[in-house]
Target: Acetate kinase
Amino acid sequence: MKVLVFNAGSSSLKLGVFDDERQVFKAGFDRFGPDGCDLTVAGVVRRAPQTDLRAAIAAVPALLSEQGVAGIAAVGHRLAHGGTGFTGPARLDDAVVARIDALTPLAPLHNPAMLQAVRLARDLWPDLPQVAVFDTSFHLTNPARATTYAVPAAWRQAGLRRFGFHGTSHKYVAERAAEALGRPVSELRIISMHLGNGASACAVQYGRSIDSSMGMTPLEGLVMGTRSGDVDPGAFGFLQRELGLDIPQIEAALYADSGLMALAGSADMRDVQDRAAAGDAAAQGAITLYAYRARKYLGAYAAAMGGLDAVVFTGGIGENSATMRRRICDGLGFLGLTLDEDLNRAPDLSDQAAPQIQGPGSRVAVIVTETAEQRMIAREVRRLLARPPAVPRPIPVAVSGRHVHLSAPAVEALFGPGYRLTPGTPLRQPGNWVAQERLVLEGPKGRLERVAILGPLRARTQIEVSRTDSFALGVDAPLRDSGKLDGTPCVRLIGPAGHLDSDGLIVAARHIHTNPEDARAMGLQDGALVQLRLADGSARSLILDRVLVRVAPGTVTELHIDTDEANAAGIVGATEGALVGTAQPVD
Ligand code: ADP
Model:
C-alpha cells in the first residue's frame, strides 16, 4: 500500500511516499518566499516557483507523476498537537478537522500550517483516506505525576499540563531498538534521546511513554538549537523588572534566540563543535552544558523507570555526533552503562540499521538509529486503515438516582463500630451493589430521605446528587467526574447510629463505562468526549454533548446519566443511546 506523507511547516513542506516500509519518493519545499522556494527531490536541489504551502501542495500531483510515482492509496499528515483527545492516529473527516482546529491555542506555531496542509490535501484527494498522526499521542500514557504542574487549580482546569512532543519519533526508535535487541518492546525500559534542532528525551517503560522532557510546549527540557529548554519560570518576573521585557518578547527569545544559538552563536551543532575544536570557550561551554542537561535527564528517567535496559540516540545530533554521545554517556558507569569508543565513532546507519555501541559487559544497551518520522506516520496510517471499521452500536442507558459511596470510617460513624453494609440488589457493573441500608442527606435548606448507598466501600466518601437535589439541600454541588473530589462541599449524612459531615458532594458528570473490547469495536478511546443521542424520534429527543468515555477491563458498557438528564429526555424505563457521528477505530 502506497502512503503519501506530509509534514508541513510555516515555511516548508516535507513529503515522502512509502510503499509498505520502503520509501519510494522523497521531496522537500523549503524557504517559501516571494520569488519561490528551494525544491529538493531525491537529494537534488533546484529553484521552484511555489511561494507558499498552498502552491506547494497543489504542485504535488505533477511532481509525483514527473517522478513516476502512481497508485497512492492513502495520505498521512503529521500534526504537532492532539491535545488529550487524540490518543492515537485519527482518520480525517470534517468532525476530526474541527476538533484539531479547536486545539490551535495549544500549538499556535505548529498546528495551523499542518492543518492547512490537511485541508488542501482533502480538497486535492477527496477520495483517498487521510489520517492525522499526532506528536503528542504517544505521551498520553504518561501518568498524572508526570503531566501535572504544581500550579493553581484554575490554571490546570484551563488546560495547563505537560504533553511532550516528538512522540512519533520516540515510538519509532523505541520499536526499532527493541527489534535490534531481539526483544519485545513490552519487556524493555528504554530512554529515547531525540537530539535534532528540537531535542527531547523520553522514558519508554515497557512500550509506553511514561515521561518526556518537553512539557506544555516544546520549550521545556533539553538544550536545543535555538530553544532554551528548562528555565526557572521566575525568569519572567526578573526579565520584566530588570530589562523591561514583556511576555511575548521573552517567549519569542526562549524559542528563537536561546539554546546553542545563545550560548555559542550558532544553532548548528556542527558549527559549535568546529568552533569548540578551534578553542572557542563559549562553544566548549555550550557543548558541556548540552551534554550535562541530557545526562541529567538520562539519570532521572532511569530512576523514574526503576532501571534501564537501553538508550537509543537519534536526530541529527544523536545520529551523527559521536563526541556528543560520548559526553552524554560519560560517567554513567554507575548505571551499568559504558560505551565502546570504536563502535561509537562510526556506526553504520544505512538501511535503517540500529547498531549497538555499548562497551563489553555494559548492562545497558546503547543504540544509534536514524529517526524516521515519515516512515512511522506511513506505518501508523497502514495500521489504522487495516483495522476493521468501527461500528457504532446502541449504548444501554443507566439512570443514577441520588446515591452515596461510603468509606469504611463513614460506615462506622453512621451505623456503629464494626458495622458491615448488607449487599442488596446487584448492579450491572460486576461486583457493585445497592446496600439494603439507606441514609439521610441534610443540607442547610432541606433533607433527602432514604438515599441509596452503593457498595463496595471506597477510600473516600462520594455523594452524588442531581442539580435539582442540590437546590433541595441548599448546597451548590459542582459538576465533577467521579473521584475528583478536592474542594467539594460538605453535606450532613445521617445514619441510625450517628451523623457525619462529609465533603465529596458532586453532580456526577455523565460518562460511558466500557471495556477495551467494546471500546475498540465502537472506536471509542479512554478519556475521549463524545456525543450521544437519547430518545431518538420522541418529542424530547436530546443530544448529550461532552460525554466522557471511561475504558476499564471487565466493565459492562453503559451510559450513566442522572435523573435530571433522564427527565430532560423524557426517559422512562430501559432505553439506549446512539453515538452521534463516526468514532475512530483505536489501537
Ligand atoms: P530537525 O530537528 O530540524 O529535524 P535534525 O534532526 O536534522 O534537525 O538535526 C539537526 C542538528 O543535527 C543540527 O544541530 C546539526 O548540526 C546536527 N548535526 C547533523 N550532522 C551532524 C554531525 N555530523 N555532527 C554533529 N552534529 C550534526
In short: The longest strand covers residues 22-33. The chain has four domains: 2-134, 167-377, 401-508, 510-582. The mean pLDDT is 94.
